[in-house]
Amino acid sequence: MQNQTAETKTAQQRWTVAEIENLLKLPFADLMYRAQQVHREHFNPNAIQLSTLLSIKTGGCSEDCGYCTQSSFHAGVENKKMLDVDEVVKAAKAAKEAGAGRFCMGAAWREPSAEDMTAVLEMVKEVRALGMETCATLGMLNDEQTEQLKDAGLDYYNHNLDTSPEFYGNIISTRDYQDRLDTLERVRKAGMNICSGGIIGMGENLTQRAGLIAQLANMNPYPESVPINNLVKVEGTPLADTEDLDPLDFVRTIAAARITMPTAFVRLSAGRGEMSDAVQALCFLGGANSIFYGDQLLTTGNPDVDRDRALMDKLGMYPLVDSCC
Fold first, then answer.
1. How many CA atoms lie within 13 A of 128 on its CB side?
2. Which residue numbers are catalytic?
3. Where are the domains of the chain?
4. What DSSP element (H or E) covers 50?
5. How many CA atoms lie within 13 A of 67 on its CB side?
6. How many CA atoms, within 13 angstroms, populate the side-chain half-sphere of residue 217?
7. What SS3 state is found at 17?
8. Is the model's pLDDT at 19 over the cut of 90?
9. pTM (2 decimals)?
10. Which residues 6+ apart lie within 8 Å of 14 measured at CB?
C-alpha cells in the first residue's frame, strides 16, 4: 500500500481502515510529501477558502454529544431563540466584506420543525443573493426538507460523522451512526454538495481515527468539503478532561484526509485558536485549504481576522475567490 500513490485509486476502489492507518504511520516527511503531491495536482497550494460560521440558533439541543456545550444534557450555553433573518443577512454582509466566500449557518437542534424551516429557507435565499456560497447545519433532515433547501439555493449541507462507527457510542447515545449516514444520503439525492468531517482528539485510538477517514473517503462520491476539528475541551462537557492530542497527530490526520479525498476542500476547523502558527502552517502543508474565518464559531472562540490575515501574509497565502452565484 505504501508504494501505491493516491492517484491510482479510483472512485470505485475503497480505502481500507488498515491502508489509512498505514498512511498515518508513515514517516512524517514522507506523509507530508505525498499529501503535497496530491494537493498540488488538484489545487493552488497558496490559495485558501475562507468560510464564516454563524450560530443562528444557540443552545437547548436535545442531543447528548459529549463535546458540545449546546447540549441540554450538559451545563452549557443558554438556550436562545433563533436569529431573525435580518440579523443573519447583516452578519453575512460583514463576513463578505471581511473576505469570506462561504457563509455557514448552524442551528442547535436535533432536526428542524416546519416553522424552523420557513425561516432558514429565507436566510438561505437572502445570503445567496449576496453572491456567497451557502452552507447550513441543521441536524437530521427528511426528504422534503432536503428538497426545500435545494430549491432555496443551498450549496452545501454540513452533517459531520464526528468519529468512526466503532467509537461513536462513546460520544453520543441519542442518535446512531446510521441516522447521520441517512441524512447525508438524502442531501446527496437532492443534489446538494456535502460537507462532512469529524473531531479528532476525543480519546479515539489510531485505528478509530483511520476509521473516520475511511468512512468519509469511501462515500461515493466523497464529500466536497471535509472539516477536520481538533477537540475544544470546554468545562462542563463530558470530554473536558480528555488527554491532549499531539499536534503532529492532528497534522497527520489532515494529510490523510487530503490523500484519500484529493479534490475535497479539507477545512482546518475548530481548535485553531489553541494552535500555534507553526502547527497551522504544517496543516496547510499537509493539504488543508479551507478555514473558518472570524473570531467566533458556534459557541467557541476562533483566531481573529487580523491574526489570520497576518498568518496568511507570512505564508504567502491568499483567499480563494469563489464564484458560485
1. 19
2. 61, 65, 68, 104, 135, 195, 267
3. 16-314
4. strand 47-57
5. 22
6. 26
7. helix
8. yes
9. 0.85
10. 214, 218
Q: Mind listing the pLDDT tens digit for each residue in 105-137?
A: 888 777 788 888 899 999 999 999 998 889 998
C-beta atoms surrounding 188 within 10 Å? 17
Contact (CB, 8 A) for 162 and 197 = no
The residue to which cell 438561505 is assigned: 124
Helix, strand or coil for residue 56? Answer: strand
Q: What type of residue is 275?
A: M
Tell me the CATH number for domain 16-314.
Answer: 3.20.20.70
Q: Which residue from 163, 259, 267 is spatially nearest to 206, judged by alpha carbons?
A: 163
What pLDDT, on a 0 to 100 scale, did the predictor assign at position 5? 39
3-class state of residue 314 by DSSP: helix
Angle at 154 between CA 44 and CA 55, to 5 degrees: 90
Express each pLDDT in 66-75 by its tens digit.
566 666 555 5
* DSSP one-letter string for 215-256: HHHTSSSPPSEEEEEEP---TTSTTTTPPPPPHHHHHHHHHH
Q: How far apart are the first and last CA of the chain?
A: 41
Return the SS3 of 61.
Answer: strand
